[in-house]
Amino acid sequence: MSESSQGKDTSGVTLGRFFAQAREGALTGIRCVGCGALAVPPKELCPECGARRWEPVPLSGEGTIASYTVIRVAPRGHAGDAPYAIAAVRLREGVSLLGRVVDVPLEALAVGLPVRFRPIVVKDRPAIAFGPA
Ligand SMILES: [Zn+2]
After folding, report:
1. Are 64 and 95 in contact (CB under 8 A)?
2. Helix H or strand E encompassing 128
3. How far is the CA of 5 from the centre of ligand 1 (A)?
């Protein structure tokens, strides 16, 4: 029963660490030890099999836009940033990740456009973004 104290253990891959690494420019996904599913950003439970054991997997950060939305009326606190685009990017490794699109003109956005992960800081907090590949 000594395992109960480690019930929350996700092999040290936490959301905080994910963003700390992202700030340094490293994108890290996690792979479920149970079924091999890849997830990013880190989750507590594997959405595929419910396991709670993960191992970190470095991601290339290279991918293509799978879908995108142009935000013209920004949430409170981001008003000065609009319009901007949020894209779901399908990474080379096969997982998709949401992020803001930077340095790509809105009219140039297209599904299938190659992009590359780029860390940004929004209101002093690290955030996920994608720029031109
Ligand atoms: Zn799993």
Report:
1. no
2. strand 125-132
3. 21
Amino acid at 28: T
CA dist 128 to 8, 16, 59, Å? 25, 13, 13
Listed residue (121, 122, 115, 62) closest to 87, CA to CA: 115
**Fold type of domain 62-132:** OB fold (Dihydrolipoamide Acetyltransferase, E2P) (2.40.50)
**Where do the structural domains in the chain lie, given as residue ranges?**
2-59, 62-132
Report the separation in Å between the CA atom of 113 and the middle of ligand 1, taken as the mean of its atom positions.
Answer: 30
Ligand 1 centroid to residue 102 C-alpha, Å: 33
**Residues 68-127: tens digit of each pLDDT:** 999 998 777 777 788 999 999 999 999 999 999 999 999 999 999 999 999 998 888 889
